[in-house]
Every structure is written in C-alpha cells, then in structure tokens.
Amino acid sequence: MAISVDYLTRQTGSNLSRNLSLSVATVLTVAVSLSLLGASLAIQRGVASASDLFRGDVDLLVWMNGDASQEQIDAVGVFLEETPTVASAEYIDKEETLAQFQEYFADEPETLNLLKPEELPTRYEVSPRRPDLASIRSLGADAAQLPGVNAVDFEEQFIQQVEGAVSSLSRIIVVGASISGFASAMIMYNTIRTGLYARRKEIEVMRLVGATKWFIRLPYMLEGLIQGLIGAAISTVALLGLNQAIRNLVSDSENRLFRAFALSTSEVFSISILLFVMGAILGAIAAGIAVTRYLDA
Amino acid sequence: MIRLENVTKEYGGESFALRDASANIPKGEFVFLVGPSGSGKSTCLRLINKQEDPDAGNIYVAGKDIGQMSSWKVPTLRRNIGNVFQDFKLLPTRTVAENVAFSMEVIGRRRSVIKQQVPAICELVGLGDKMSKFPDQLSGGEQQRVSIARAFVNRPLILLADEPTGNLDPQTSIGIMRLLDRINKTGTTVVMATHDRGVVDTMRRRVIELSHGQIVRDEDRGVYG
Which of A209, A214, A218, A296 to mutate to test the interface with B (most CBs of B within 10 A)? Predict the structure, then answer.
C-alpha cells in the first residue's frame, strides 16, 4: 500500500514536535552515548598510533665478535641490506663505539682506563621495516647464524609487553563502547515506547480503521532515524571540541607519544561518519522494534 | 454478510464470553445485540473485526473465513468495517474535520479525495458548521456524530456500534439512532450492542439476546425483552 511522502513528513514532524521534551531527551541521550563511542574510538586510534611509534623505535642490535674479520663484517652488512624486512642498518665501528663509551663514562676516568679500544665489540644498529615481533625475531635468528656475529639483541620482552598492553586496552575499549551503544539503544527503545504509550489512542484508531502495520511503523522509524542523526551530529561536534582540546594540550609536548593522541581532522570525520551510521541504525531499528512489539502485544 | 458458526470464546478457565453461538446476519440488516453486562455482546463485536480470535467455531465476514485469515490481511478486513464506541475514541488534539480525515489518511487515500469527502460526510451527520471545532468543544451527541462520520467515511460494508448511546440522554440518543438508520438504508449492515431498552423498543429491528455467552433469543422486529 502506498504511503504518501506528504503524510509521512507531516506525521513525523508532528510526532517530533508534539513531544518536544521527550524528543530533546532522546536526542541528548543518543548524543551522549555516541560521544562515548566516538571518544572510545578516538582513544583506540590514539593508542594504535602511539604504539606504532613505540614499536618503530625498537632497534635490533647485531653485535660482532671483537676479533671479527673485515670480510665477516662486510658479509653481515650485505646480508642486512639484502633482507627485505630491514629498513636500515648502520655500522658502528670501533672508533665510534669508543667515542660513545668516553661520553657515557666521562665522569669515571678509572673505568675508561680499563678499556682496551681494540677489544671493543662493534655492532650493526638495525631498524626493522615492520615493527611486529615475529618478523624481528626471525630476522634476529638469521643474523645470529652468520660467522663473526657474537649475539643479537632486541627487546623482545619489552615489545611483548607493549603489544599485550595495547591489545588488552583495545579490548576494554571495544567492550566499553559496546555497552554504551547497547545502553543507548535501550534508552531509545524505551523513549519511543513512552511516545507510543502517549499516542496509544491514535494508534488504536489507526488499527481499527485498517491502517497497515508499516503505515503505523514508518513515521516512528523515521522519527527514530532523525533523532539518531541529530544525536550523531551533536556527538561529532563534541568529538571535534574534545580533539581540539587535546591538540592544544599536547602541541607543546616534547613527547611524540602524547602527540599521537591528537587526531587529524580527517580521522575525526571518519569516526563521525561511523557515528552517523550508528545513530541512524540505532534510531530506526530501536524504534522499529518498539513499535512492532507494541503492535503485537 | 456475517455468519457465526458454533463460536466459543473463553477468558481463562470456566468463564465463557461466548458459548457455541451461531447466527447469520445478511447484507443490509440492522441487528441489536442485547443482554446484561458481561453477556458477551462486546466479545461478539471484537471477534467480527478480528481484534480477538475465537477458541472454537468459525466466523465468516463478507464470505471470508476470518479465522484462517493471515495477519497482514486484517487491515483489508477492517477497511470494510466501521467502528463506533460508547466513549467515542476521538483524538482530542485534532479538529472534527481532522478526526474524520485521519481515518482516510491512514489507509492511504489521496488528499484530493479526502478534501472532497470530509465536508460531505460532516454535512451528512449534521456537523457541517462545526468542522473546525475540537472534540472538547462539542456535546456528547455531537462527539458521537463525529465518531460515526469517521466510521462511515470509508463506506464500510459493516458498521459495528458498541453501546453508542450509552453515554447520551434519551433525546440525543434518538438523533444518533436516526443517523444509524440512515446509514443502514444505504445498504450498510449495522450490528449494535446495547442495553438501551428505549432505543430497541422504538426501532423494532432484529434482536439477538445473549445471556452468559449463549444466544437465548433471536427474533425479527423484536423488543428488548
């Protein structure tokens, strides 16, 4: 059966305006829930980019034997250059190592006197291309097999801790966002039910004169959809404000990790698109279920 | 037009709302359902427009077995049945014209048709000059006329009236009955549940009497009893 656009707009408009306080309350609850969801997503992105920075900082140290020949040293250099998972490899020779030692132990001339420059171990400082543990580990194992290599160091435990912390934090955030999303769907559902109850007489008349269920349901679903979208718009504004505040807070910070928490405007918009979709689905579906259950009761 | 075959409806346990009731109401007839409160009059009406389903027996409306009817067809059934109630069930936030138009809107009638039909039907029920009034600005009798206009505007085959004069004084009731009689004369089958003795005795139409859910009397040109 045809449902006229004219009827739909008038009915939805009057539904929204007649229960204005209820509509405002619904929009605000949706806005709060979606803001929570948006903030969770923003934090998750911040954590992800901060941990990328973290892991990007991890180097692999390939220590050579003190008596390794020049051929062996060169062979390791060639191996590292030819390995695709290596971003860059820098050779630190004896002189440079000595200079570093002298800098570190400048306050302790006794220690420096004990050093014999010719015995100092040299090393390659390797930056892996991808900061994931598995590829770093296999690279380290391969390098350790080469002749003249004394040991390969990388901070395996540290990387594992970072990865563990990031994944459990993401999990907590996802759970939190799901709970707040569910809560706002429930609030939406109950608000629409209250609205239905207020208009029960009208609905009774509609059913008695032979209106179809879709005819009754559509204006309410449209109402829910509009409320969801307005809520999403408000939460987008809130998210932009929050991000600007964070940006102001961390822009002076020396720490790159803190700066990672300020999102770019395009990142905020990609989150807000998700919020609009969520708001629309949340509103229309919660309203649809509320009306269907009301009509079937 | 309406046929009940051994219809039984119980509301939990021992209490029967309707017990093995059979009746045949041909097209264009005017029937009173009489009996004390709780005798099953309202249940009978609610079964005919499928607001409830019987526990046993069959009900045919316009040749269709409505017990077998799937739920998405119920709106089509209801478009053939107008309803009038004791408490009018008007929408207080809408004017007389809007109340009448509402029942055309919600079944998807064109606006041009609505604009044309509403004034005509308001004129028919004698409210041509009160179309922009709200229900609480009208008397009880006038409100019932609005309710009848709303029930009749879609030209239903059947009009079900549940105690339409229950809240009205005898003088006003006469006016309402004249209106229902006029609607009946257009070919619409009217079934009216009532315990208004005066109305039944004046009209002298077919009377079906119910007692404890059973049909105890069914006579043409009957009186209240």
Answer: A209
